[in-house]
Design a protein that fits this description.
- One of its GO terms (molecular function) is transaminase activity.
- Its EC number is 2.6.1.-.
- This is [LysW]-aminoadipate semialdehyde transaminase.
- A hairpin with a 5-residue loop joins β8 and β9.
- This protein has about 375 residues and is an alpha/beta fold.
- Helices cover about 35% and strands about 20% of the residues.
- The protein has a domain of about 120 residues: Alpha-Beta Complex (Aspartate Aminotransferase, domain 1).
- The protein starts with 13 loop residues before the first strand and ends with a helix.
- The strands form 4 sheets. A 7-stranded mixed beta sheet has the order 4-12-11-10-7-5-6, with helices on both faces.
- Bound molecules: pyridoxal-5'-phosphate.
- The site of pyridoxal-5'-phosphate has 15 residues, from α4.
Length: about 375
């Protein structure tokens, strides 16, 4: 058997990682400003995280959701306190797509409706309901195209006011679009969604899979706009690489046995990883660090020749170049040994660990200046 070849790969094989660094099998060191798609939140192989997971693995690694798993309650309590959403419920899953799939299903169970509003350049995952609300026909199979989905222009307040009506089940939006190119939702747009949902009984779903968990400099990016969604989905940074996702559910929803379910969601190891991540985020004040280092990046990138636009919040940064980004990223990786991400043809995506230091930011900035001057 061989692998189903769906991923274009770099000829690099990391065998070790620590903090913001990776090492390949030849001992070559790389600075990581991508975190494997925004997943590495507290830094690679944090000693506390490794210790907690090792201990848990020795005790019990898995049992299903038919028994008591106290680390799930611990996680709900910690997440409620740290995010400021103490009165929300938590449903645990394994990935971002699964979180959105359950969020959409829950919204539809709640109000009995099926029309969903989503936005241009939005990305919500590759499972059926999630991909149906994703604005990218190239990743939809014929069974994924759905009549009940309407895609509106992102940040268009008037379009929201017009489209959300008494038949709308839910509005799903990323507070900062990741795959779409680091586009930040305006406060006005977020408030318009909240208002339209309140008026019509539609459910406001905030996809925080990429922009959540402290990355924007607040726990959730919608907290910059002062709104409260009805359902919030999260994954990526939640387990620092251990697969886990979550659906945060407002108090107005009522759970029924059998309504939602999963085999692996909320297992012992996943909860241990997620609890360790929250402990470190709190102890090391990583949300504040993300805000500070993010500001440092913006101050130092502003005005650099070759940059057309800077977008983002905290450590979710999009650098749109005047020229195609491909050769710039290749030079950063192969000449300067720095991993970065991409969106579209001209935008570099930075999604480093929330523990990134000024010194590491400077290494990136010096390298980028050299590449742009070439
Ligand atoms: C905003 C957003 N939602 C959902 C997903 C899907 O997450 P996963 O790949 O864990 O299914 C992603 C992944 O990139 C994402 O960026």
């Amino acid at each position: 058997m061989t692998l189903f070849n769906v991923y274009p790969l770099y000829d690099i094989e990391p065998v070790k990682a620590q903090g913001s660094y990776l090492w390949d099998k030849n001992g070559q060191q790389y600075l990581d400003l991508y975190g494997g798609h925004a997943v590495i939140s507290i830094g690679h192989t944090h000693p506390y995280y490794v210790r907690k997971l090792t201990q848990q693995l020795k005790n019990i690694g898995f049992y299903s959701n038919s028994v008591k798993i106290p680390s799930q309650d611990e996680l709900a309590d910690k997440l409620g306190k740290l995010s400021g959403l103490k009165d929300y419920f938590l449903f645990l899953v394994n990935s971002g797509a699964e979180a959105n799939e359950n969020a959409l299903k829950l919204a539809s169970f709640y109000n009995g409706r099926k029309k969903i509003i989503a936005f241009s350049k939005g990305f919500h995952g590759r499972t059926s309901a999630a991909v149906a609300v994703t604005d990218n026909p190239s990743i939809k199979a014929p069974i994924n195209f759905a009549d009940h989905v309407q895609i509106l222009p992102f940040n268009d307040v008037e379009a929201v006011k017009k489209a959300v009506d008494n038949e709308t089940c839910a509005v799903i939006v990323e507070g900062i679009q990741g795959v779409g190119g680091i586009n930040v939702a305006t406060d006005e747009f977020m408030r318009a969604i909240r208002k339209a949902c309140d008026k019509t009984g539609a459910i406001f779903i905030h996809d925080s899979v990429q922009c959540g968990y402290g990355r924007s400099g607040k726990f959730f990016s919608f907290q910059h706009s002062g709104v409260k969604p009805d359902i919030i989905t999260t994954a990526k940074g939640m387990g620092n690489g251990f697969p886990i996702g979550g659906v945060l559910i407002a108090p107005k929803f009522e759970a029924k046995h059998g309504m939602l379910g999963t085999t692996f969601g909320g297992n012992h190891l996943a909860c241990t990883a997620a609890n360790a991540v929250l402990d470190i985020i709190k102890k090391e004040k990583l949300i504040q660090n993300a805000a500070n280092i993010g500001d440092y990046f913006f101050e130092n990138l502003k005005g650099l020749a070759g940059i057309k636009e800077l977008r983002g919040q905290g450590l979710m940064i999009g650098i749109e170049f005047e020229k195609p980004v491909g050769p710039i990223r290749n030079a950063m990786l192969f000449e300067h040994k720095i991993f970065t991400g991409v969106a579209g043809t001209h935008t570099m995506r930075l999604l480093p660990s929330l523990a990134m230091t000024i010194k590491e930011a400077d290494i990136f900035l010096d390298a980028l200046k050299k590449v742009l001057a070439q």
